[in-house]
Amino acid sequence: MHRFANPGRFLRIAAVVQPVAVAVLAVSLVAGLYLALFGSPADYQQGQSVRIMYVHVPSAWMAMFVYTVMAAASAAALIWRHPLAEVAAKASAPIGACFTFLALVTGSLWGKPMWGTYWVWDARLTSVLVLFFLYLGYMALSEAFDDEQRGLRAASILALVGFVNVPIIKFSVEWWNTLHQPASVMKMGGPSIHASMLWPLLLMALAFKAYYVVVLLLRIRAELAARRVRAVRIARATAAS
């Protein structure tokens, strides 16, 4: 992985990957939205409110996926001192926080007609809320020190410690008696959801994943540019003194 540590090499790779990710995002989002809104049937119990699933479920998947990426990048930064790993983790945090917030909001909207309330202190809902606060804590901690490296190291430790919450979210519906329904896509016996609903759900998940890649690359490139500007200013200030 250290061959990607060189910012110039990374930027060359990003220049190739980003247009592909944009194309995948556009195609999968248009196809996914069309199938979700017009090509999939209403649920026999939930009616038209089931269409919230096509945003809620991919958002929840991405909330856990992005935090997993952050934890892996934080480990690489702490153990192997990979220079771009902490940049990737820092760039991922706001994206993951947005996905988590979207999962919480859409889950509440979906929960009202299904459960009769917007919120219950269910194990799944509570652990996702904890995940949202972990994202916020990471972002706050990374900016809490005058020395940027100290802040990023502290935030990396928080990301690693907080990763224990990800399997709790995943298995909470199996470990505890919760209102939240169990997994219907990622399960040992295969998906239990009908293909007419599964395909738009997977297309929306692909669109969300492509969106993450696009925005992540943009944020990393912006962070690298900002670091170069800071380095030039410091060099000029040192030369002037």
Describe this structure in words.
- With 241 residues, this protein is mainly α.
- Helix content is 76%, strand content 0%.
- The chain has 7 helices and no strands.
- Helix 2 (53-79) runs antiparallel to helix 3 (85-115) and helix 2 (53-79) packs across helix 5.
- The chain is globular, with a radius of gyration of 20 Å.
The helix content, as a percent range, equals: over 70%
**Mean of pLDDT:** 88
Radius of gyration: 20 Å
Question: Total number of β-strand segments?
Answer: 0
* Total of helices: 7
Largest sheet: none
Counting copies of identical and different chains, the oligomeric state is: single chain
Our measurement of the CA-to-CA distance between the termini, rounded to an integer number of angstroms, reads 38 Å
Q: DSSP strand (E) fraction?
A: under 5%
Q: Assign the structural class, choosing from mainly alpha, mainly beta, alpha/beta, alpha+beta, or little secondary structure.
A: mainly alpha
**Morphology call:** globular
Uncertain residue ranges: none
Give the H and E element order.
Answer: HHHHHHH
Quick tags:
241 residues, globular, mainly alpha
How do the strands and helices of this protein lay out in sequence?
Layout: H1 7-39, H2 53-79, H3 85-115, H4 123-142, H5 148-162, H6 165-175, H7 195-240
Helix pairs in contact: 1-7, 2-3, 2-4, 2-5, 2-7, 3-4, 3-7, 4-5, 4-6
Question: What can be said about this structure in brief?
Answer:
With 241 residues, the protein is mostly helical. The chain is built from seven helices and no strands.
